[in-house]
Amino acid sequence: LPQWISMINDTQLDSGEQLHWECRATGKPRPTYRWLRNGEPLNSQSRVEMVNGELIIHRLQQADSGMYQCIAENKYGAIYSSAELKILASAPTFSTNPVRLIATVGKDVSLECRPRASPKPRISWRKNDKRVQPSRRIMLLRNNTLRIINSSRSDEGSYVCRAENQFGSAELTTVLLVKEPMRVELTPVRVEVTVGESVVLSCKVTHDPSLDVSFLWLLNNQPLNTQQEGGHFEYIQTQSSTADLMIRSILLKHAGKYGCRAQTSADSVLAEAELLVRGPPGPPGVVIVEEITDTTATLSWSHGVDNHSPITTYNVQARSPVSLGWQTVKTDPEPVTGNMESAMSVELNPWVEYEFRVVATNGIGTGDPSAPSRAVRTKEAVPSVAPANVRGGNGRRHELVISWEPVSEEFQNGEGFGYIVAFRANGTRGWKEKMVTSADSTTYKYRDETFPPLTPFEVRVGVYNNKGDGPFSEVVTVFSAEGEPREPPSEVQAFAISSSEIKVMWKPPNPGPGRPQGYEVSFWKDMEQEETGKKKRTTGNETTMLLTGLDGNTQYLVSVKGFNSVGQGPASSPAKISTKKNAPSLPPGNLMWIQEGNNVSLSWDPVKARDNESEVIGYKVLLRQEGRGHSQVMRTPNSAVILTLPEGGTYIIEVRAVSEGGEGAASAQVRVLTSS
């Protein structure tokens, strides 16, 4: 069965042109071809050729338009390829008419003539009703455009393009005006400023007054968008032929070539000016570590841009994992001048990983730093820094506790770092030395049952690593531990303050080793175990404590023990004490009052305590001015009182019963108003 290799497609041609279609198919046996137009067989004629799948029609006519089919067939079947042929036939027309064209003296001018027509029309030009004759200065191009070279005022006038074919004709009139060329001046042509300063570029135009002029500002050949520049640029146009560009608080990125393009309907002219910005230097090139020792690093770099101000000095900086960011380091030579591209960093710490960078400075300021170098580690060396703040004390009985501030990694100078702890009792000759292998250790404990508490020792702490032993610290005196308190407090006494409060007092133990740093008071109910009770500690060496939140009319046991940083001492013998009965639960009742002027006589029914309550010993009268939080208090043993109130106020009065167990409930409130 035939298979298509190439097929025909819809085509649109002018009348009089030639159609060439080709269809190709494969098959066994080789296919033969036939053509149909509008479903009817197409036969060869004087204008129509059909050869092996090709169809050629010469001098197309309107009658040739229609639907065509190419049929490829063999004994196994036939396949079809279809396409439409459209024949265009129209009189010439112009889309715009007339056309107004403005040119400038000395410039070339092109007057176009592009009619829509089918077939292609014949074109002729005339000026002011006279046929245009081509010359060395006036040319008729193949696309029917009339081109005038080096135009002058004499070329002004009305030019008519006439297009004509067998279907009709049309004309296009182009009115040509020739104006004097525009001149643009941008000042200053070259200007140097420093970062942070401001400058004004002025663009002045000389042009034909009959033409309107517009301005476009460019930076490095790109249109300048003032909205995206953070307020640094401002356009100022005071006259129709003058435009200024103000640049405020100039940055380095504002340097470059500025252009002012003036445009009219006849001309477009560009004037340019160069702006140089002086500023701090740019970053130097990448820093390379040429050589490394235990305390030095030889560095090299390349110059960065100086931003139009010569580089005066370079500053070398370093950082390590233990430093607080980038730090300036000493160099050889010192200082590093602006014409140098290498220096040696000195007085580095051994066995520390460093990164280096370089910062350039000129007369304007200091620029951005270079990119960091690769990280390098200095060589190992014997430690040179001894531990600081060697001290001791505390610990358990018969212990000597020695502590120090660890040497930071920055000063350990190599692997295998540790401490040598040396000590001897005062008055002895030989030193005991103990190795502490952890670089992070801060404490060493030595225990000996033979020395008594608070024995003085001379102590020093040294350092070492795989390279050797470093220095020792200064010798200090450290006392052995005095241990936890050995004796309990004495003369423990307890007093009931109210139904919920007990005051406890004691005397400290006799002076000696194991001095208390504070005391812990334990208290529990008589019918309970001590373990279920509560504990409360003093904040210092106080020898009194107030226990609160207790149950009323209840017997408690209280004991006291000393404590210090080592531990707790023995507890005192328990002291027994009962809290007072609870305060009366009933409030004063039947509160009555009589007011005479500013004097108020109050009376109430006495409160009778219940069996489990404390006896009433008096009453408390609370007086408060309305709107204020503060209350005045008056105490009385009786169930009546006379109050004298200040003038001009409203007062709230209430009464509470008072007993050894505390205060009872409040009475109903009385509200009294005094006159001013």
UniProtKB/TrEMBL annotation:
<feature type="domain" description="Fibronectin type-III">
    <location>
        <begin position="283"/>
        <end position="381"/>
    </location>
</feature>
<dbReference type="Pfam" id="PF00041">
    <property type="entry name" value="fn3"/>
</dbReference>
<dbReference type="InterPro" id="IPR036116">
    <property type="entry name" value="FN3_sf"/>
</dbReference>
<dbReference type="InterPro" id="IPR036179">
    <property type="entry name" value="Ig-like_dom_sf"/>
</dbReference>
<dbReference type="InterPro" id="IPR003961">
    <property type="entry name" value="FN3_dom"/>
</dbReference>
<keyword id="KW-0130">Cell adhesion</keyword>
<dbReference type="InterPro" id="IPR007110">
    <property type="entry name" value="Ig-like_dom"/>
</dbReference>
<dbReference type="InterPro" id="IPR003599">
    <property type="entry name" value="Ig_sub"/>
</dbReference>
<feature type="domain" description="Ig-like">
    <location>
        <begin position="181"/>
        <end position="276"/>
    </location>
</feature>
<keyword id="KW-0393">Immunoglobulin domain</keyword>
<protein>
    <recommendedName>
        <fullName>Contactin-5</fullName>
    </recommendedName>
</protein>
<keyword id="KW-1015">Disulfide bond</keyword>
<keyword id="KW-0732">Signal</keyword>
<feature type="domain" description="Ig-like">
    <location>
        <begin position="92"/>
        <end position="173"/>
    </location>
</feature>
<dbReference type="InterPro" id="IPR013783">
    <property type="entry name" value="Ig-like_fold"/>
</dbReference>
<feature type="domain" description="Ig-like">
    <location>
        <begin position="2"/>
        <end position="86"/>
    </location>
</feature>
<keyword id="KW-0472">Membrane</keyword>
<keyword id="KW-0449">Lipoprotein</keyword>
<keyword id="KW-0677">Repeat</keyword>
<feature type="domain" description="Fibronectin type-III">
    <location>
        <begin position="386"/>
        <end position="483"/>
    </location>
</feature>
<dbReference type="InterPro" id="IPR013098">
    <property type="entry name" value="Ig_I-set"/>
</dbReference>
<feature type="domain" description="Fibronectin type-III">
    <location>
        <begin position="488"/>
        <end position="582"/>
    </location>
</feature>
<comment type="similarity">
    <text>Belongs to the immunoglobulin superfamily. Contactin family.</text>
</comment>
<dbReference type="Pfam" id="PF07679">
    <property type="entry name" value="I-set"/>
</dbReference>
<feature type="region of interest" description="Disordered">
    <location>
        <begin position="368"/>
        <end position="391"/>
    </location>
</feature>
<keyword id="KW-0336">GPI-anchor</keyword>
<feature type="domain" description="Fibronectin type-III">
    <location>
        <begin position="587"/>
        <end position="676"/>
    </location>
</feature>
<keyword id="KW-0325">Glycoprotein</keyword>
<dbReference type="InterPro" id="IPR003598">
    <property type="entry name" value="Ig_sub2"/>
</dbReference>
<keyword id="KW-1003">Cell membrane</keyword>
